Amino acid sequence: MQTVDASWQYQNGDHIACIPGSYEINVDDDGAIGVNGGVCSFLQATASGVQGGAIKGLLQELQKHGCEACGSISTTSQNDVSKGELMVNFVSGNINGCNGLCG
């Protein structure tokens, strides 16, 4: 995520970056469900958001934990996600045309 603005203050729920896609999930022998959305990074439960520079570091730490697509990491040194976390997860529905860095 080299292009995340290090000084920008991201807030809870802001899509930081997304990879859009449409997926088909087989539910049984009779068919499948179509799902649209994408894998996005975003913040949850932070007191006042997180600057882009810190988000870059958190994403690197998430990769070191072996997360290749989805995962989460605390934004605080107490490792308490109830006080803030960076999530990378599938988001269904409209991701507002975000492909790569969101803005």
Number of strands: 7
Uncertain runs are none
Find the CATH topology. Answer: Killer Toxin P4, Chain A
Report the span from N to C terminus.
14 Å
CATH superfamily: Killer Toxin P4, subunit A
Q: What does the overall shape look like?
A: globular
Please indicate the percent range of residues in DSSP E strands (runs of 2 or more). Answer: 35-45%
* CATH class value: Alpha Beta
Main pleated sheet: 5 strands, antiparallel
Structural class: mainly beta
Helix percent reads 10-25%
Mean pLDDT: 89
InterPro entries: Killer_tox_Kp4 (IPR015131), Killer_tox_Kp4/SMK (IPR011329)
Protein name: Killer toxin Kp4 domain-containing protein
Pfam families: Kp4 (PF09044)
Domain Killer toxin Kp4: 2-91
Question: What order do the helices and strands come in, and which of them pair?
Answer:
Elements: E1 9-10, E2 17-28, E3 31-44, E4 50-51, H1 52-64, E5 71-74, E6 85-92, E7 100-101
Antiparallel strand pairs: 1-4, 2-3, 2-7, 3-6, 5-6
